[in-house]
Amino acid sequence: MEASSKGDVLYNRCLSAARASLQGLDYVFYQNDLTVMGIADNPGDLLAICQDLVASHLFQAMTMDGVLVWRVREREGAGKLAALTSDERLIYGHIESTSTTGIWTKALKAKTNLHQTVMTRALKSLETKRLIKPIKSVKYPARKIYMLSHLIPSEDVTGGPWFADGELDLDLIEALTDPILHWVQARSWKEAPRVSQSVIAKKKLEKEKAMAAANRGSSGVPEAEEPKYTPPTGSNGRPLLALPPNHRTYPTAAAILEFISSVGILEGLTLTEADLKTLLDVLVFDGKLERMGAQGYRTVRQPKNIPEEGEGNGFSSAPCGRCPVFSLCEEGGPVSASNCVYFDTWLKG
Predict the structure, then answer these.
(1) What is the pLDDT of residue 149?
(2) Which secondary-structure segment (H or E) carries 189?
(3) Strand partners, 13
(4) Residues of the chain whose pLDDT is less than 50?
(5) What is the bridge-based pairing of β-strands 59-64 and 145-148?
(6) 3-79: which CATH topology?
(7) Measured between alpha carbons, how far is 343 from 78 in angstroms, rounded to an integer?
(8) How many CA atoms, within 13 angstroms, populate the side-chain half-sphere of residue 294?
(9) Which end of the chain has less neighbouring CB within 10 Å, N or C?
(10) What is the model's pLDDT at position 308?
């Protein structure tokens, strides 16, 4: 078999294998992978065939952990590469090697050792030809990063479904938060049983009598006060009660994901369980949800009409109750009550 024919056979087999793999054209072929295809007569013949494919831009040669490997390209893409200048081809190769993570222009300049003017011109030309595109990174928003135009940035770059165009998608988060909290609450607590009208009337009468006696200055009866806050209530307006201690079927991330998928809130957005757990963790940190066991969640009962400044107690109002280095505080240590500037301010306030 002639070398060109061997090259075509090897290329076609590699292209088929890459398309059938989960990685697609990012699939990497080691020398052993190509050897077992039985196309080359010996290792030298195989390397020569690969070199011809690299020269025609059908193969991309690269190293992984110091080992020479190859990736296959579509013929259309290889044809576009052949029409590039040497500088454009050099830059394209480095951008291509970073796959879905992209490469920072400063790192690209260091790898290519090209003058800034030359690199800027080559990048503009490649972008005009729609071979590369600039992307925004949520980790490094100030950096200019490029990747191949046909690729989709990884979640490490985009931040996943909670970001849009490099910025936190607050509209999406708000659209999901309220339905999730409402659905989880209905499965986290039970409302108190309905009280008959006769019982309500009796309690109301007792309260009116107590208030009347207090207003007359009757001894032993304290003056009635309005409650400091309203207990949390359910959808029917009755107080929320905890479920039995042996209750184990609190909503999980999988169940919550199934709920929001079934009601059509996502509107075509693909959301994984791991993505949803990120949002649930935020709700836990915000004090809206709490974990129940290894996988369950329930809502936090929030009293209503809480005064802006509660009475609290000595420990909660003192700096010690919120001190991040409380465990290090001791006489003679790096932090102590005798040299704490916040403690003096609290005592004087």
Answers:
(1) 86
(2) strand 189-191
(3) none
(4) 221
(5) unpaired
(6) Arc Repressor Mutant, subunit A (1.10.10)
(7) 70
(8) 0
(9) C
(10) 56
Enter the tokens of residue 5. Answer: 């024919």
Decide if 3-79 and 84-158 have a common fold. Answer: yes
What is the three-class DSSP state of 208?
Answer: helix
d(CA 40, CA 42): 6
Torsion angle of C-alpha atoms 183, 184, 185, 189, degrees rounded to 10: 130
The number of CA neighbours under 13 Å toward the Cβ of 291 is: 9
CA 155 – CA 138 distance, rounded (Å): 10
Q: Round to whole Å and give the CA distance between 146 and 133.
A: 6
N residues, the chain: 349
The confidence score (pLDDT) of residue 305 equals 57
Joined tokens for residue 127 = 């972008």
Give the residue extent of every domain in the chain.
Answer: 3-79, 84-158, 314-348
Neighbours of 147 (CB within 10 A): 22
Alpha carbon dihedral 312, 318, 324, 325, in 10-degree steps, equals -140
Q: What is the distance between the alpha carbons of residues 182 and 194, in angstroms, rounded to a whole number?
A: 21
Separation in Å, CA 127 to CA 91, 100, 130: 12, 17, 5
DSSP bridge pairs for 163: 168
Residue with tokens 């080559």: 122
- Report the pLDDT value the prediction gives residue 303, as an integer from 0 to 100: 63
- pLDDT value, residue 329: 77
Helices vs strands, H then E, count in the chain: 14, 12
- 203-230 burial, b if ≥16 CB within 10 A, otherwise e? eeeeeeeeeeeeeeeeeeeeeeeeeeee
Q: In this predicted structure, what is the pLDDT of residue 116?
A: 92
pLDDT at 16: 92
Q: What is 235-275 written as a DSSP string?
A: TTSSBEEEPPTT---PPBHHHHHHHHHHTT-STT----HHH
Residue with tokens 């052993």: 32
> H or E element: which one contains 72?
strand 67-72
Per-residue pLDDT, 4: 62
Structurally, at CATH architecture level, domain 84-158 sits in Orthogonal Bundle (1.10)
